[in-house]
Design brief:
Forms a cyclic heterotetrameric complex composed of two molecules of XerC and two molecules of XerD. The protein has about 325 residues and is mainly alpha-helical. The chain is built from 14 helices and three strands. The chain has two domains: about 100 residues, Orthogonal Bundle (DNA polymerase, domain 1), CATH 1.10.150; about 190 residues, Intergrase catalytic core (hpI Integrase, Chain A, Orthogonal Bundle), CATH 1.10.443. The chain is elongated and about 70 Å long.
């Protein structure tokens, strides 16, 4: 879709000037080629910058060199307040939009399109720190076992074997749900116990698969996948649906939700078990077991160790809870 060629939906009667459009397109190209951002992140940045261009057009701005700090602050304040066409943005979304705007101005300065960065001293809203939710090990084991045994037989066995393999795979590798459903059979090496995962920004990493996950995946590949594949049109995906096609993210979500419900774990509300819960649990349990945070960073495919370090806060919180309940003089 062409970027902001038609701003009628935003209530703007005049389109951005060619200079503004070129600047934004150049920045998005930079993010795509040099930064390797994912398609979803790029789509979010594109929407954020569309709204920013609408603000600039409303103010009569024709190029980024004419933007002052006050206009940037006004735009960010509008995002938080909302308007007739848009509801107020949550702090996290407003912070992302601020990042897009600040990145655009930094890019324009580096490229010589402007002589200064008006967003440099504009502070974006700080999202509240949200610690990842991790399940206790016993809850993870109960969740995995409710998916079905790897010795399942009968008419329901193929799907039961697939469900167990999928959940063991998610917890045994720390894969994102998109990485799991995107994995191909040729990416697996069950003899070595490894898999190639394709993550955000096209980054590929080799990660080990735990022994329980290897056993579950092998059982599925030998006893279930051939039958499922026979009714499909041929796909290299590891995990298949009942029609023989590649399992979708929604399908995988449904598998986890049903298993969590049977295991007596929450499936609704803020504490609901999600595919990312298994990823959080994987990271937290590794750190609890003594793994180095840099190793966990590589296993999770995080571009920055800062992203991974949030899990160390989870383990510290757990230590505090244990201390507070177990030490005789923990409380005054």
């Amino acid at each position: 879709m062409a970027l902001t060629d038609d701003l009628a939906g935003a209530g703007v009667s005049t389109a951005p000037t060619p200079a503004l459009r070129r600047a934004v397109r150049g920045y998005l190209d930079h993010l795509t080629v040099e930064r390797g951002l994912s398609a979803n992140t790029l789509a979010s940045y594109r929407r954020d910058l569309d709204r920013y261009l609408a603000t600039l057009v409303d103010a009569g701005v024709t190029d980024l060199a004419s933007v002052g700090a006050g206009l940037v602050e006004t735009h960010l304040a509008r995002l938080r307040a909302g308007d007739d066409a848009h509801p107020p943005l949550a702090v996290s979304s407003a912070a992302r939009a601020a990042s897009a705007v600040r990145g655009l101005h930094r890019f324009a300065l580096r490229e010589g399109l402007t002589g200064a960065d008006p967003s440099r001293d504009v502070r974006p809203p700080t999202p509240p720190r949200r610690l990842p939710r991790a399940l206790p090990v016993d809850d993870v084991v109960r969740l995995l076992e409710t998916a079905g045994p790897i010795t399942a037989t009968g008419d329901d066995a193929p799907l039961a074997l697939r469900d167990r393999a999928l959940l063991e795979f998610l917890y045994g590798t720390g894969a994102r749900i998109s990485e799991a459903v995107g994995a191909a059979v040729d990416d697996l090496d069950t003899d070595e116990g490894t898999v190639l995962l394709r993550g955000k920004g096209g980054r590929v990493r080799l990660v080990p698969i735990g022994g329980y996950a290897v056993d579950a995946v092998r059982a599925y590949l030998v006893r279930a996948r051939p039958g499922l594949a026979a009714v499909g049109r041929g796909t290299p995906a590891v995990f298949l649906n009942a029609r023989g096609g590649a399992l979708s993210r929604q399908g995988a979500w449904g598998i986890l939700r049903r298993a969590a419900d049977r295991a007596g774990l929450p499936v609704d509300g803020p504490a609901a078990v999600s595919p990312h819960t298994l990823r959080h649990s994987y990271a937290t349990h590794l750190l609890d077991g003594g793994a180095d945070v840099r190793v966990v960073q590589e296993l999770l495919g995080h571009a920055s160790v800062t992203t991974t370090q949030v899990y160390t806060l989870v383990t510290v919180e757990r230590l505090r809870e244990v201390y507070a309940t177990a030490h005789p003089r923990a409380r005054g």
